[in-house]
Design a protein that fits this description.
Blueprint (H helix, E strand, L loop, with lengths): L2 H10 L1 H6 L4 H14 L5 E2 H18 L9 H8 L7 E4 L8 E4 L1 H12 L9 H17 L4 H23 L8 H41 L5 H17 L1 H14 L1 H14 L15 H52 L60 H14 L2 E3 H7 L6 H8 L6 E16 L5 E13 L9
Antiparallel strand pairs: 1-3, 2-3, 4-6, 5-6
Protein backbone atom coordinates (compact mmCIF):
# COMPACT_ATOMS: atom_id res chain seq x y z
CA UNK A 1 0.00 0.00 0.00
CA UNK A 2 1.13 3.53 -0.74
CA UNK A 3 1.60 6.27 1.86
CA UNK A 4 -1.39 8.36 0.68
CA UNK A 5 -3.65 5.32 0.58
CA UNK A 6 -2.74 4.41 4.17
CA UNK A 7 -3.31 8.00 5.25
CA UNK A 8 -6.81 7.99 3.70
CA UNK A 9 -7.64 4.73 5.50
CA UNK A 10 -6.38 6.16 8.80
CA UNK A 11 -8.59 9.23 8.50
CA UNK A 12 -11.73 7.47 7.26
CA UNK A 13 -11.68 4.01 8.87
CA UNK A 14 -13.95 3.55 11.91
CA UNK A 15 -11.96 0.46 12.93
CA UNK A 16 -8.73 2.47 13.03
CA UNK A 17 -10.52 5.20 14.99
CA UNK A 18 -11.64 2.57 17.53
CA UNK A 19 -8.12 1.23 18.03
CA UNK A 20 -6.81 4.78 18.60
CA UNK A 21 -9.54 5.71 21.10
CA UNK A 22 -8.57 6.41 24.71
CA UNK A 23 -11.21 3.99 25.98
CA UNK A 24 -10.54 1.36 23.31
CA UNK A 25 -10.20 -1.44 25.89
CA UNK A 26 -13.62 -0.62 27.35
CA UNK A 27 -15.34 -0.37 23.95
CA UNK A 28 -13.71 -3.48 22.49
CA UNK A 29 -14.37 -5.63 25.54
CA UNK A 30 -18.05 -4.68 25.82
CA UNK A 31 -19.00 -4.58 22.13
CA UNK A 32 -16.87 -7.65 21.38
CA UNK A 33 -18.59 -9.69 24.08
CA UNK A 34 -22.14 -8.61 23.14
CA UNK A 35 -22.00 -8.54 19.34
CA UNK A 36 -19.08 -10.83 18.41
CA UNK A 37 -18.82 -13.50 21.11
CA UNK A 38 -22.60 -13.81 21.53
CA UNK A 39 -23.23 -13.19 17.79
CA UNK A 40 -25.95 -10.62 18.56
CA UNK A 41 -27.32 -9.07 15.38
CA UNK A 42 -29.97 -6.84 16.92
CA UNK A 43 -30.57 -5.77 20.51
CA UNK A 44 -33.06 -3.28 21.93
CA UNK A 45 -31.93 -0.01 23.43
CA UNK A 46 -33.35 -0.87 26.85
CA UNK A 47 -31.48 -4.17 27.11
CA UNK A 48 -28.19 -2.75 25.81
CA UNK A 49 -28.36 0.24 28.17
CA UNK A 50 -29.00 -2.12 31.08
CA UNK A 51 -26.03 -4.32 30.22
CA UNK A 52 -23.77 -1.31 29.71
CA UNK A 53 -24.90 0.12 33.07
CA UNK A 54 -23.79 -3.10 34.77
CA UNK A 55 -20.47 -2.96 32.92
CA UNK A 56 -19.86 0.67 33.92
CA UNK A 57 -20.75 -0.05 37.55
CA UNK A 58 -18.29 -2.94 37.74
CA UNK A 59 -15.47 -0.92 36.13
CA UNK A 60 -16.05 2.16 38.27
CA UNK A 61 -16.24 0.06 41.46
CA UNK A 62 -12.84 -1.39 40.62
CA UNK A 63 -11.44 2.12 40.19
CA UNK A 64 -12.20 4.74 42.81
CA UNK A 65 -11.44 7.63 40.43
CA UNK A 66 -14.43 6.72 38.21
CA UNK A 67 -12.70 6.29 34.87
CA UNK A 68 -16.02 6.26 33.00
CA UNK A 69 -18.24 9.02 34.44
CA UNK A 70 -20.77 9.29 31.58
CA UNK A 71 -24.09 7.45 31.47
CA UNK A 72 -24.65 4.30 29.43
CA UNK A 73 -27.10 6.05 27.07
CA UNK A 74 -24.58 8.83 26.41
CA UNK A 75 -21.91 6.29 25.50
CA UNK A 76 -24.24 4.43 23.14
CA UNK A 77 -25.38 7.63 21.41
CA UNK A 78 -21.76 8.64 20.96
CA UNK A 79 -20.76 5.25 19.52
CA UNK A 80 -23.73 5.33 17.12
CA UNK A 81 -23.02 8.84 15.79
CA UNK A 82 -21.95 9.10 12.13
CA UNK A 83 -18.61 10.60 13.15
CA UNK A 84 -17.74 7.49 15.19
CA UNK A 85 -19.56 4.69 13.38
CA UNK A 86 -19.13 1.78 15.79
CA UNK A 87 -22.84 1.03 16.26
CA UNK A 88 -25.84 1.22 13.95
CA UNK A 89 -28.96 2.66 15.60
CA UNK A 90 -32.22 1.96 13.77
CA UNK A 91 -35.92 1.20 14.24
CA UNK A 92 -37.01 -2.28 13.10
CA UNK A 93 -40.24 -2.62 11.18
CA UNK A 94 -43.20 -2.26 13.55
CA UNK A 95 -41.08 -1.29 16.58
CA UNK A 96 -41.23 2.02 18.47
CA UNK A 97 -37.97 1.46 20.36
CA UNK A 98 -34.54 1.89 18.76
CA UNK A 99 -32.28 -1.13 18.32
CA UNK A 100 -28.51 -1.42 17.98
CA UNK A 101 -26.20 -3.52 15.86
CA UNK A 102 -22.42 -3.49 15.54
CA UNK A 103 -20.79 -2.26 12.34
CA UNK A 104 -18.10 -4.22 10.46
CA UNK A 105 -15.53 -1.86 11.99
CA UNK A 106 -16.08 -3.48 15.40
CA UNK A 107 -15.64 -6.98 13.93
CA UNK A 108 -12.37 -5.94 12.23
CA UNK A 109 -10.99 -4.23 15.34
CA UNK A 110 -11.88 -7.16 17.62
CA UNK A 111 -10.40 -9.67 15.19
CA UNK A 112 -7.17 -7.69 14.86
CA UNK A 113 -6.74 -7.38 18.64
CA UNK A 114 -7.40 -11.10 19.07
CA UNK A 115 -4.72 -11.87 16.48
CA UNK A 116 -2.16 -10.02 18.65
CA UNK A 117 -2.50 -12.51 21.51
CA UNK A 118 0.28 -15.08 21.79
CA UNK A 119 -0.77 -18.62 20.94
CA UNK A 120 0.72 -21.70 22.54
CA UNK A 121 -0.21 -23.80 19.53
CA UNK A 122 -0.12 -22.68 15.87
CA UNK A 123 -1.31 -25.23 13.35
CA UNK A 124 0.19 -25.24 9.86
CA UNK A 125 -0.50 -28.72 8.45
CA UNK A 126 -4.25 -28.19 8.07
CA UNK A 127 -3.78 -24.91 6.24
CA UNK A 128 -1.31 -26.53 3.86
CA UNK A 129 -3.81 -29.31 3.15
CA UNK A 130 -6.50 -26.68 2.57
CA UNK A 131 -4.25 -24.89 0.09
CA UNK A 132 -3.62 -28.10 -1.83
CA UNK A 133 -7.35 -28.92 -1.89
CA UNK A 134 -8.27 -25.44 -3.13
CA UNK A 135 -5.65 -25.63 -5.86
CA UNK A 136 -6.98 -29.01 -7.00
CA UNK A 137 -10.53 -27.69 -7.12
CA UNK A 138 -9.51 -24.70 -9.22
CA UNK A 139 -7.21 -26.63 -11.54
CA UNK A 140 -9.51 -29.55 -12.31
CA UNK A 141 -12.79 -27.67 -11.81
CA UNK A 142 -11.90 -25.39 -14.73
CA UNK A 143 -10.57 -28.24 -16.92
CA UNK A 144 -12.69 -28.77 -20.05
CA UNK A 145 -10.85 -31.86 -21.33
CA UNK A 146 -12.88 -34.98 -20.35
CA UNK A 147 -9.78 -37.22 -20.39
CA UNK A 148 -7.99 -35.08 -17.83
CA UNK A 149 -11.06 -34.96 -15.57
CA UNK A 150 -11.52 -38.74 -15.78
CA UNK A 151 -7.83 -39.34 -15.03
CA UNK A 152 -8.07 -37.17 -11.87
CA UNK A 153 -11.24 -38.95 -10.71
CA UNK A 154 -9.64 -42.36 -11.25
CA UNK A 155 -6.58 -41.28 -9.24
CA UNK A 156 -8.79 -40.19 -6.34
CA UNK A 157 -10.81 -43.41 -6.56
CA UNK A 158 -7.59 -45.43 -6.43
CA UNK A 159 -6.51 -43.60 -3.27
CA UNK A 160 -9.90 -44.29 -1.68
CA UNK A 161 -9.77 -47.96 -2.67
CA UNK A 162 -6.30 -48.30 -1.18
CA UNK A 163 -7.45 -46.69 2.07
CA UNK A 164 -10.48 -49.01 2.20
CA UNK A 165 -8.21 -51.98 1.74
CA UNK A 166 -5.92 -50.87 4.57
CA UNK A 167 -8.85 -50.36 6.94
CA UNK A 168 -10.30 -53.76 6.10
CA UNK A 169 -6.85 -55.25 6.73
CA UNK A 170 -6.81 -53.77 10.23
CA UNK A 171 -4.45 -50.87 9.46
CA UNK A 172 -6.55 -48.00 10.87
CA UNK A 173 -4.59 -44.74 11.09
CA UNK A 174 -6.12 -42.43 13.69
CA UNK A 175 -5.45 -38.69 13.58
CA UNK A 176 -3.24 -37.72 16.52
CA UNK A 177 -4.45 -35.05 19.03
CA UNK A 178 -2.06 -32.45 17.63
CA UNK A 179 -3.54 -32.76 14.15
CA UNK A 180 -7.06 -32.62 15.62
CA UNK A 181 -6.31 -29.37 17.48
CA UNK A 182 -4.65 -27.98 14.36
CA UNK A 183 -7.73 -28.53 12.23
CA UNK A 184 -10.11 -27.36 14.95
CA UNK A 185 -8.19 -24.11 15.29
CA UNK A 186 -8.47 -23.49 11.57
CA UNK A 187 -12.18 -24.37 11.67
CA UNK A 188 -12.96 -21.86 14.45
CA UNK A 189 -10.99 -19.10 12.73
CA UNK A 190 -12.73 -19.65 9.40
CA UNK A 191 -16.18 -19.88 11.00
CA UNK A 192 -15.62 -16.63 12.93
CA UNK A 193 -14.36 -14.82 9.84
CA UNK A 194 -17.41 -16.00 7.94
CA UNK A 195 -19.75 -14.43 10.51
CA UNK A 196 -17.81 -11.17 10.28
CA UNK A 197 -18.07 -11.27 6.49
CA UNK A 198 -21.83 -11.61 6.74
CA UNK A 199 -22.03 -8.39 8.72
CA UNK A 200 -20.00 -6.59 6.05
CA UNK A 201 -22.11 -8.04 3.23
CA UNK A 202 -25.24 -6.86 5.04
CA UNK A 203 -23.72 -3.38 5.36
CA UNK A 204 -23.01 -3.31 1.62
CA UNK A 205 -26.61 -4.22 0.78
CA UNK A 206 -27.89 -1.65 3.29
CA UNK A 207 -25.78 1.01 1.57
CA UNK A 208 -27.40 0.02 -1.73
CA UNK A 209 -30.84 0.31 -0.11
CA UNK A 210 -30.01 3.79 1.22
CA UNK A 211 -28.75 4.88 -2.21
CA UNK A 212 -31.97 3.60 -3.79
CA UNK A 213 -34.12 5.55 -1.29
CA UNK A 214 -32.19 8.75 -2.02
CA UNK A 215 -32.55 8.20 -5.76
CA UNK A 216 -36.30 7.56 -5.46
CA UNK A 217 -36.81 10.64 -3.27
CA UNK A 218 -35.29 12.96 -5.86
CA UNK A 219 -36.48 11.09 -8.97
CA UNK A 220 -38.07 13.32 -11.61
CA UNK A 221 -38.25 10.96 -14.59
CA UNK A 222 -40.78 8.33 -15.54
CA UNK A 223 -41.55 5.18 -13.55
CA UNK A 224 -40.29 2.98 -16.38
CA UNK A 225 -36.84 4.60 -16.34
CA UNK A 226 -36.61 4.19 -12.56
CA UNK A 227 -37.67 0.53 -12.69
CA UNK A 228 -35.11 -0.16 -15.42
CA UNK A 229 -32.33 1.49 -13.44
CA UNK A 230 -33.21 -0.22 -10.16
CA UNK A 231 -33.59 -3.66 -11.73
CA UNK A 232 -30.29 -3.16 -13.52
CA UNK A 233 -28.57 -2.28 -10.26
CA UNK A 234 -30.18 -5.27 -8.51
CA UNK A 235 -29.06 -7.60 -11.31
CA UNK A 236 -25.55 -6.18 -11.18
CA UNK A 237 -25.35 -6.97 -7.45
CA UNK A 238 -26.73 -10.48 -7.96
CA UNK A 239 -24.39 -11.26 -10.85
CA UNK A 240 -21.28 -9.87 -9.13
CA UNK A 241 -18.68 -12.19 -7.59
CA UNK A 242 -19.89 -11.31 -4.09
CA UNK A 243 -23.51 -11.91 -5.04
CA UNK A 244 -22.82 -15.25 -6.72
CA UNK A 245 -20.74 -16.48 -3.79
CA UNK A 246 -23.34 -15.39 -1.23
CA UNK A 247 -26.27 -17.06 -3.01
CA UNK A 248 -24.28 -20.26 -3.56
CA UNK A 249 -23.47 -20.39 0.15
CA UNK A 250 -27.08 -19.62 1.09
CA UNK A 251 -28.50 -22.35 -1.15
CA UNK A 252 -25.92 -24.82 0.17
CA UNK A 253 -26.78 -24.04 3.78
CA UNK A 254 -30.55 -24.22 3.25
CA UNK A 255 -30.32 -27.89 2.30
CA UNK A 256 -31.89 -30.04 5.01
CA UNK A 257 -29.40 -32.79 4.29
CA UNK A 258 -26.45 -30.42 4.72
CA UNK A 259 -27.83 -29.07 7.99
CA UNK A 260 -28.23 -32.56 9.40
CA UNK A 261 -24.70 -33.47 8.28
CA UNK A 262 -23.28 -30.30 9.87
CA UNK A 263 -25.07 -30.96 13.15
CA UNK A 264 -23.78 -34.53 13.29
CA UNK A 265 -20.21 -33.50 12.46
CA UNK A 266 -20.16 -30.72 15.04
CA UNK A 267 -21.52 -33.06 17.71
CA UNK A 268 -18.88 -35.70 16.96
CA UNK A 269 -16.01 -33.20 16.83
CA UNK A 270 -16.84 -31.56 20.16
CA UNK A 271 -16.97 -34.98 21.82
CA UNK A 272 -13.29 -35.66 21.02
CA UNK A 273 -10.91 -35.75 23.96
CA UNK A 274 -8.28 -33.68 22.13
CA UNK A 275 -10.76 -30.86 21.63
CA UNK A 276 -11.88 -30.94 25.27
CA UNK A 277 -15.27 -29.40 24.63
CA UNK A 278 -13.91 -26.76 22.28
CA UNK A 279 -15.50 -23.36 21.78
CA UNK A 280 -19.13 -23.41 22.89
CA UNK A 281 -20.03 -20.94 20.11
CA UNK A 282 -18.98 -23.48 17.49
CA UNK A 283 -21.57 -26.07 18.55
CA UNK A 284 -24.36 -24.18 16.79
CA UNK A 285 -22.30 -22.14 14.36
CA UNK A 286 -24.37 -23.26 11.36
CA UNK A 287 -27.49 -21.78 12.97
CA UNK A 288 -25.62 -18.50 13.46
CA UNK A 289 -24.70 -18.62 9.75
CA UNK A 290 -28.35 -19.10 8.84
CA UNK A 291 -29.48 -16.21 11.03
CA UNK A 292 -26.82 -13.87 9.60
CA UNK A 293 -27.57 -14.85 6.01
CA UNK A 294 -31.33 -14.45 6.58
CA UNK A 295 -30.78 -10.91 7.88
CA UNK A 296 -28.75 -10.18 4.76
CA UNK A 297 -31.54 -11.53 2.57
CA UNK A 298 -34.06 -9.38 4.48
CA UNK A 299 -32.00 -6.30 3.67
CA UNK A 300 -32.08 -7.22 -0.02
CA UNK A 301 -35.86 -7.63 0.12
CA UNK A 302 -36.16 -4.03 1.29
CA UNK A 303 -35.09 -2.95 -2.21
CA UNK A 304 -38.14 -4.54 -3.81
CA UNK A 305 -40.49 -3.29 -1.08
CA UNK A 306 -39.21 0.28 -1.41
CA UNK A 307 -39.63 0.19 -5.19
CA UNK A 308 -43.17 -1.20 -4.94
CA UNK A 309 -44.13 1.46 -2.38
CA UNK A 310 -42.81 4.19 -4.65
CA UNK A 311 -44.76 2.90 -7.65
CA UNK A 312 -47.97 2.71 -5.58
CA UNK A 313 -47.48 6.30 -4.39
CA UNK A 314 -46.81 7.51 -7.93
CA UNK A 315 -49.96 5.85 -9.27
CA UNK A 316 -52.05 7.37 -6.46
CA UNK A 317 -50.63 10.85 -7.08
CA UNK A 318 -51.20 10.62 -10.84
CA UNK A 319 -54.80 9.44 -10.37
CA UNK A 320 -55.43 12.27 -7.94
CA UNK A 321 -53.98 14.80 -10.40
CA UNK A 322 -56.25 13.53 -13.18
CA UNK A 323 -59.31 13.75 -10.93
CA UNK A 324 -58.40 17.31 -9.91
CA UNK A 325 -58.17 18.34 -13.58
CA UNK A 326 -61.51 16.72 -14.39
CA UNK A 327 -63.21 18.41 -11.43
CA UNK A 328 -61.77 21.75 -12.51
CA UNK A 329 -63.19 21.30 -16.03
CA UNK A 330 -66.60 20.32 -14.65
CA UNK A 331 -66.66 23.30 -12.27
CA UNK A 332 -65.75 25.70 -15.08
CA UNK A 333 -68.39 24.22 -17.37
CA UNK A 334 -71.08 24.56 -14.69
CA UNK A 335 -70.09 28.18 -14.20
CA UNK A 336 -70.52 28.93 -17.93
CA UNK A 337 -73.80 27.06 -18.27
CA UNK A 338 -75.93 30.07 -17.30
CA UNK A 339 -74.23 32.51 -19.69
CA UNK A 340 -75.88 33.16 -23.03
CA UNK A 341 -72.72 33.91 -24.96
CA UNK A 342 -69.80 32.46 -23.04
CA UNK A 343 -66.41 33.87 -23.96
CA UNK A 344 -65.15 30.59 -25.38
CA UNK A 345 -63.38 30.83 -28.69
CA UNK A 346 -61.09 28.54 -30.54
CA UNK A 347 -59.17 28.71 -33.78
CA UNK A 348 -58.08 26.05 -36.22
CA UNK A 349 -55.50 26.29 -38.96
CA UNK A 350 -57.87 25.12 -41.67
CA UNK A 351 -61.00 23.14 -42.39
CA UNK A 352 -59.20 20.77 -44.76
CA UNK A 353 -55.64 19.54 -45.13
CA UNK A 354 -53.43 21.06 -47.79
CA UNK A 355 -52.13 18.42 -50.17
CA UNK A 356 -48.96 19.12 -52.09
CA UNK A 357 -47.76 16.36 -54.36
CA UNK A 358 -44.02 15.97 -54.91
CA UNK A 359 -44.34 16.39 -58.71
CA UNK A 360 -46.09 19.74 -58.29
CA UNK A 361 -42.94 21.32 -56.99
CA UNK A 362 -40.76 23.07 -59.57
CA UNK A 363 -37.58 21.36 -60.61
CA UNK A 364 -34.21 22.85 -59.93
CA UNK A 365 -33.13 25.43 -62.47
CA UNK A 366 -29.49 26.37 -62.52
CA UNK A 367 -28.86 30.09 -62.73
CA UNK A 368 -27.33 31.33 -65.94
CA UNK A 369 -23.83 32.64 -65.55
CA UNK A 370 -23.27 36.05 -67.05
CA UNK A 371 -19.94 36.69 -68.71
CA UNK A 372 -18.33 39.99 -67.75
CA UNK A 373 -16.10 41.79 -70.19
CA UNK A 374 -13.84 44.34 -68.52
CA UNK A 375 -11.58 45.03 -71.49
CA UNK A 376 -13.34 48.21 -72.72
CA UNK A 377 -13.73 50.02 -69.41
CA UNK A 378 -12.98 53.72 -69.73
CA UNK A 379 -12.54 56.34 -67.08
CA UNK A 380 -15.61 58.48 -66.29
CA UNK A 381 -15.90 62.20 -65.90
CA UNK A 382 -14.12 63.66 -62.93
CA UNK A 383 -16.34 66.71 -62.40
CA UNK A 384 -19.92 65.64 -61.59
CA UNK A 385 -22.47 66.36 -58.87
CA UNK A 386 -21.90 63.76 -56.13
CA UNK A 387 -24.64 65.06 -53.84
CA UNK A 388 -27.11 62.66 -55.40
CA UNK A 389 -25.19 59.73 -53.89
CA UNK A 390 -25.96 60.97 -50.39
CA UNK A 391 -29.66 61.51 -50.87
CA UNK A 392 -31.66 58.79 -49.13
CA UNK A 393 -35.37 58.13 -49.02
CA UNK A 394 -36.57 57.40 -45.46
CA UNK A 395 -40.04 55.98 -44.88
CA UNK A 396 -41.46 56.37 -41.38
CA UNK A 397 -43.15 53.03 -40.45
CA UNK A 398 -45.32 54.56 -37.69
CA UNK A 399 -48.02 56.07 -40.00
CA UNK A 400 -48.19 52.80 -41.93
CA UNK A 401 -48.62 50.85 -38.68
CA UNK A 402 -51.41 53.16 -37.53
CA UNK A 403 -53.28 52.69 -40.84
CA UNK A 404 -53.17 48.92 -40.40
CA UNK A 405 -54.35 49.10 -36.76
CA UNK A 406 -57.26 51.35 -37.70
CA UNK A 407 -58.35 48.97 -40.46
CA UNK A 408 -58.06 45.94 -38.15
CA UNK A 409 -60.35 47.58 -35.61
CA UNK A 410 -63.20 47.20 -38.10
CA UNK A 411 -62.38 43.71 -39.40
CA UNK A 412 -60.05 40.85 -38.41
CA UNK A 413 -57.79 41.09 -41.48
CA UNK A 414 -57.03 43.43 -44.38
CA UNK A 415 -55.07 42.98 -47.60
CA UNK A 416 -52.13 45.13 -48.75
CA UNK A 417 -53.83 45.87 -52.08
CA UNK A 418 -56.86 47.30 -50.37
CA UNK A 419 -54.73 49.45 -48.08
CA UNK A 420 -52.85 50.93 -51.04
CA UNK A 421 -56.14 51.64 -52.82
CA UNK A 422 -57.36 53.61 -49.79
CA UNK A 423 -53.97 55.19 -49.11
CA UNK A 424 -51.91 55.40 -52.35
CA UNK A 425 -48.15 55.11 -52.13
CA UNK A 426 -46.47 58.48 -51.72
CA UNK A 427 -42.84 57.37 -51.62
CA UNK A 428 -42.98 54.65 -54.25
CA UNK A 429 -41.15 51.37 -53.97
CA UNK A 430 -39.48 52.29 -50.65
CA UNK A 431 -42.89 52.67 -49.00
CA UNK A 432 -44.04 49.34 -50.47
CA UNK A 433 -40.97 47.55 -49.07
CA UNK A 434 -41.61 49.16 -45.66
CA UNK A 435 -45.13 47.67 -45.65
CA UNK A 436 -43.60 44.21 -46.16
CA UNK A 437 -41.11 44.66 -43.30
CA UNK A 438 -43.55 45.89 -40.66
CA UNK A 439 -43.55 44.11 -37.26
CA UNK A 440 -46.10 44.80 -34.55
CA UNK A 441 -47.45 42.74 -31.63
CA UNK A 442 -51.06 43.62 -32.56
CA UNK A 443 -50.98 42.06 -36.02
CA UNK A 444 -49.05 39.59 -38.13
CA UNK A 445 -48.04 39.69 -41.82
CA UNK A 446 -49.13 36.64 -43.84
CA UNK A 447 -47.67 35.91 -47.31
CA UNK A 448 -49.65 33.71 -49.70
CA UNK A 449 -47.38 32.39 -52.46
CA UNK A 450 -50.27 30.72 -54.30
CA UNK A 451 -51.86 34.04 -55.26
CA UNK A 452 -50.16 36.98 -57.01
CA UNK A 453 -51.39 40.59 -56.62
CA UNK A 454 -50.43 43.70 -58.55
CA UNK A 455 -49.70 46.99 -56.81
CA UNK A 456 -49.62 50.20 -58.90
CA UNK A 457 -48.36 53.70 -58.11
CA UNK A 458 -47.01 56.77 -59.89
CA UNK A 459 -43.44 57.89 -59.35
CA UNK A 460 -42.05 61.42 -59.08
CA UNK A 461 -41.59 61.73 -62.83
CA UNK A 462 -45.26 60.91 -63.44
CA UNK A 463 -44.68 57.40 -64.80
CA UNK A 464 -46.98 54.55 -63.76
CA UNK A 465 -45.28 51.69 -61.97
CA UNK A 466 -46.61 48.15 -61.32
CA UNK A 467 -45.18 45.56 -58.86
CA UNK A 468 -46.15 41.89 -58.85
CA UNK A 469 -45.81 40.21 -55.47
CA UNK A 470 -47.44 37.41 -53.45
CA UNK A 471 -50.68 38.28 -51.73
CA UNK A 472 -49.97 40.05 -48.46
CA UNK A 473 -52.54 40.08 -45.64
CA UNK A 474 -52.35 41.75 -42.26
CA UNK A 475 -54.20 39.66 -39.63
CA UNK A 476 -55.20 40.74 -36.15
CA UNK A 477 -53.16 38.97 -33.46
CA UNK A 478 -55.17 36.85 -30.98
CA UNK A 479 -55.76 38.46 -27.60
CA UNK A 480 -54.12 36.86 -24.56
CA UNK A 481 -56.34 34.69 -22.35
CA UNK A 482 -58.28 36.88 -19.96
CA UNK A 483 -56.99 40.12 -21.55
CA UNK A 484 -58.91 42.86 -23.33
CA UNK A 485 -60.00 42.37 -26.92
Amino acid sequence: MEHDEIEDVRRGSSAWRLLRADNAAFVLSFLGRVFVDENTRSISSTELVSRLDDELYALNQANENARYPRSAKAYLDDWASPEVGWLRKYYPLGADEPHFDATPAVEKAVGWVQSLRSRSFIGTESRLNTIFELLRQMAFGSEADPDVRVAELERRRQEIDEEIARVRGGDVQVMDPSAQRDRYQQFTATATELLADFREVETNFRALDRELRERITGWEGSKGELVEEVVGSRSAITESDQGRSFHAFYDFLLSQERQAELSDLLERIHSLDAIDGGDRRMRGIHYSWLDASERTQATVRLLSEQLRRFLDDQVWLENRRVMDILRGIETHALGLREERNPAIRTEIDGVAPTVRLPMERPLYRPQAKMALDSMDIVAGAEDFDASLLFEQVYVDPQPLTRRIRQSLQREPQVGLGRLIEEHPLEQGLAELVTYLALEDPQFSVVFDDLHIDQVAWRDESGRDRVARLPRVTFARAPSPVGGPR
